[in-house]
Structures are given as structure tokens and as C-alpha cells.
Design a protein that fits this description.
This protein is mainly α and 123 residues long.
């Protein structure tokens, strides 16, 4: 593990660098991540604007932010499985399918939150 003897603010700076490296790798290598960001960018300010209370704004924005978080984890799982080998294995397929289901569930969660908060205002 690189820089394991680094502590304090220096460790935070290194961790931030690794995080940015991971975001860049996911953005460059995963089309789904780019598509989700494309949807996220206009919806974030819309969620802040449409929410009438701090709790509503937090729910609208938070539900959206959950999607790329889960996509990052999905991409990490897929990269790890792909590193093991290219041959087809039932457990590898299951791991990828379950991670993909997590992404789907996070998108469904965001859609339900948005519907539950916004539909009653328009009915």
C-alpha cells in the first residue's frame, strides 16, 4: 500500500488524489457513468429549485447523488472480476449482475423519491 506511513493532512491530500484518479478512470472507461452524469447535471439544480423545504431538497438531490455512487461501486466490482480472468464463471456473472441490479435499484429509488415529492404538488 503506497504512502501507508503518511498521516494527517498529507494523508487526506493523497486520498483526495486517489479519489480523483478513480473518478477520472470511471468517467473515461464507463459509458453508463458518463450517461448518468449527463442526467445528473441538469437535475441537481432542478432538485434544489423544486424542493420546498430543506428536507425535500436533500431528498431530491441525495437520491440523485446515490446513483453515481452506486455506479462507481458497480464499476469497481466489474473491474475486479475482469482482472481475475476473461473466462466465463457463474460466480463472476452473478457478482456483475448483482452490482448492476444495485445500480438499477438506485435509479428506481431516485425516480420514486422524485415522484413522491413532486407529483402531489401538481395534482
Amino acid at each position: 500500500m503506497a504512502h501507508r506511513h503518511v498521516h494527517g493532512w498529507k494523508r487526506v491530500i493523497y486520498a483526495f488524489g486517489y479519489s480523483m484518479k478513480g473518478l477520472k478512470a470511471c468517467y473515461e472507461g464507463e459509458e453508463a457513468f458518463r450517461q448518468e452524469l449527463l442526467v445528473l447535471i441538469p437535475l441537481l439544480p432542478l432538485g434544489v429549485w423544486l424542493g420546498e423545504s430543506p428536507v425535500e431538497r436533500a431528498m431530491l438531490v441525495g437520491s440523485l447523488l446515490l446513483v453515481p455512487i452506486v455506479e462507481l461501486l458497480n464499476s469497481a466490482i466489474e473491474a475486479n472480476v475482469d482482472r481475475i480472468g476473461s473466462e466465463r464463471h457463474e460466480l463472476s456473472a452473478r457478482a456483475k449482475d448483482i452490482a448492476s441490479a444495485a445500480v438499477f435499484t438506485s435509479i428506481l429509488f431516485a425516480a420514486v423519491i422524485w415522484l413522491l415529492i413532486l407529483v402531489p404538488k401538481w395534482l
